[in-house]
Amino acid sequence: MIDLQKEGGIWTATINRPEKANSLTEAMLAELGDIALAATDARALILTGEGRVFSAGADFDAARAGLATSPLWERLSGAIAPLPCLTIAALNGTVAGGAVGMALACDLRIAVPGAKIFYPVMKLGFLPQPSDPPRMARLIGPARTKMIFMAGQKIDTETATAWGLFDQIVEADMLLDASRALAQDSISATPAHAAAIKGMIP
């Protein structure tokens, strides 16, 4: 249920379980991690979803069985963050729960109008994955991070953009084209050049 397309140096991984709001099973989460670990060969990596939701996080039954606190989430975000290529979360809709971590680990987050972001760990009684709060705090500051993790706020498109969680808003039918366009300068450079510039940005 993870579709991977490789074209012109751009790897596009699509979560394809729209009938379940692209919620992730253990196998899907492991597959995404495998793709991210292998993407050292990619010139750009785009993560997106099928349908109107990027991902609702862990599948409900799998979450109750322990997936909500699985190290597979940290394995995935930990594989995305150090990639030498440009990484883009193309958010075709709302991103929630553990799925927020993979979006935070990307270099850019491009969203469609109406996309929301929320991470209801306080309400559900789970701890977030260790790298997610500090990554979010680096983007939007500690107080706004607490609004999401501790106050359980659902952040709408406009607010997420104003805060810096979303970097660009594009219409749904242009999402992938816009994401690929953002990667063009990066993939036209040598991999070493792209990696060197990315390495200069904290």
Description:
The protein is an alpha/beta fold. It has one domain (2-199): Alpha-Beta Complex (2-enoyl-CoA Hydratase, Chain A, domain 1). The protein has helices at residues 26-38, 60-64, 72-80, 99-105, 121-124, 132-140, 142-149, 157-163, 175-188, 191-199; strands at 2-7, 10-15, 44-49, 53-55, 86-91, 94-96, 108-111, 117-118, 168-169. A six-stranded mixed β-sheet has the order 1-2-3-5-7-9, with helices on both faces. Helix 3 packs parallel to helix 4 (99-105) and helix 6 (132-140) crosses helix 7. The chain is globular, with a radius of gyration of 16 Å. The protein starts with a strand and ends with a helix. 44% of the residues are buried. The mean pLDDT is 96.
Give me the secondary-structure category.
alpha/beta
Q: If classified by CATH, what would the architecture be?
A: Alpha-Beta Complex
Rounded mean pLDDT score = 96
Question: What is Rg?
Answer: 16 Å
Provide the fold topology:
Layout: E1 2-7, E2 10-15, H1 26-38, E3 44-49, E4 53-55, H2 60-64, H3 72-80, E5 86-91, E6 94-96, H4 99-105, E7 108-111, E8 117-118, H5 121-124, H6 132-140, H7 142-149, H8 157-163, E9 168-169, H9 175-188, H10 191-199
Parallel strand pairs: 2-3, 3-5, 4-6, 5-7, 6-8, 7-9
Antiparallel strand pairs: 1-2
